Amino acid sequence: MTEPYRILQSVFGHHSFRAYQEEAVNAILAQKDIMMILPTGAGKSLCYQLPSLVMEGISVVISPLLALMHDQITALSTFGIKASMISSMQSPSEIQETMQACRKGELKLLYVAPERLKGESFLNFLQTLPLNFFVIDEAHCVSEWGHEFREDYRQLFRLKLYFPQTPIAAFTATATKIVEHDILHQLSLSNPLIIRAKVERDNLVIKADYRNANGREQLLAFLSGFEKESGIIYTLSRKDTESLALFLGTHKILARAYHAGLPTEEKNETFRAFLNDEIQVVVATIAFGMGIDKSNIRFVVHMSLPKTIENYYQEIGRAGRDGLPSSTLLLFSNSDIVEHKRRIGEQPTSEYQKVAYEKLEAMAKFATSQVCRHQQIANYFDDTINPCVTRCDNCVDGEKESVDISHEALKLLS
Ligand code: ADP
Ligand code: MG
Ligand code: ZN
């Protein structure tokens, strides 16, 4: 048995590698730069955690969210793996302590917030360590063409300047070809191995429809097919999450609201209850997302148009992680486009606003188009597939009569 395989079983307790994992692990062990584009929940973390255990030194993971880092470190500790983090949320003495542990070789993984790399002294500190490789988690954050650009990720160009010999492994769930190239360029990856999973999720049935004046009735009709099964309903505003959760309650559907404005305790409790199937539905803004690891989500509904196909794909991708048939429904209306435009800014002037408009337009086209939904998503991510025939409304229902409205929708964006 190879060393990675042995560790997979003895440390992580998994029987076998999932698709693409072994390839990534071997490339990292061979000191190659890699970039991996694999859906959320596919198991990207293992691809860098496992090689870190095989290698002698320490691996440094750049991650955009403190909560994500925290979850990872907690999960690693249950496997008996020593990991820690350095971020602005910690006191100077805590940071000193962690740095000391790194120097003594007590840690296998160090999680770091990207803004750390601005400081010369921190880079100098890293240079004193026996580094295995750098991990850039959620690597799409480095690109302005992506959907979650973060200014601090721009610092990452320093890595190859300061550490030309240290390989970089970049991970993301969604990247168009443009974003992919941008990431390679921004990080100066050298001759990287690129591992890109196929985009199509063939256990998902995808539907989209105009939301009429009784959007909630449309929702109830859909939900009647999912008694007692878990699902997520996305709304645009925080207020809507709460009123819709109440509305569902009056129809005997156990639902709770989730948005960034709620107290942390309440959010954690909702999260926990959902994971344990104590509630059926979470009505959420896009704040409910990163890091959700629940395999039996049977449906995802959007009560309004998402702002990008990247967001939409990631959100519907939370359904059916266990591979069982699952459904998604997008309900949209032209007023959603107006609202998104208001949020972006009426007249797009900055580069950021122009990109946001383009992405919104692609999303609106997707919603109103008569082409196979799976095929449209695949095309958007530069993958080529045949029409699904049986797993989307456009393939199943054929021609629709709503072409006029879609004209209206696209006019709003021109
Ligand atoms: P990603 O970062 O791609 O979104 P994660 O790394 O968070 O996904 O992994 C998602 C889940 O998959 C975790 O619960 C993890 O334990 C599990 N997992 C990863 N690899 C395997 C494997 N080879 N066998 C079984 N479960 C795995
Ligand atoms: Mg991840
Ligand atoms: Zn189809």
Automatic annotation (TrEMBL):
Which part of the chain is the Helicase ATP-binding domain?
A: 25-193
Q: Name one GO molecular function term.
A: metal ion binding
Q: What class of enzyme is it?
A: isomerase
Q: Cofactor(s) for this protein?
A: Mg(2+); Zn(2+)
Q: Which GO terms describe its biological process?
A: DNA recombination; DNA repair; DNA replication; SOS response
Q: Which reaction does it catalyse?
A: Couples ATP hydrolysis with the unwinding of duplex DNA by translocating in the 3'-5' direction
Q: Kindly state one GO CC term assigned in the UniProt record.
A: replisome
- Give a yes or no for keyword Cytoplasm in this entry: no
- Taxonomically, the superkingdom here is Bacteria
As recorded in UniProt, its EC number(s) are 5.6.2.4
The Helicase C-terminal domain extends over 218-363
List the keywords (alphabetical). ATP-binding, DNA damage, DNA recombination, DNA repair, DNA-binding, Helicase, Hydrolase, Isomerase, Metal-binding, Nucleotide-binding, Zinc
UniProt record similarity statement:
Belongs to the helicase family. RecQ subfamily.
Its recorded name reads DNA helicase RecQ
Biological source species? Sulfurospirillum halorespirans DSM 13726
Portion of the full-length sequence here: 1 to 414 of 596
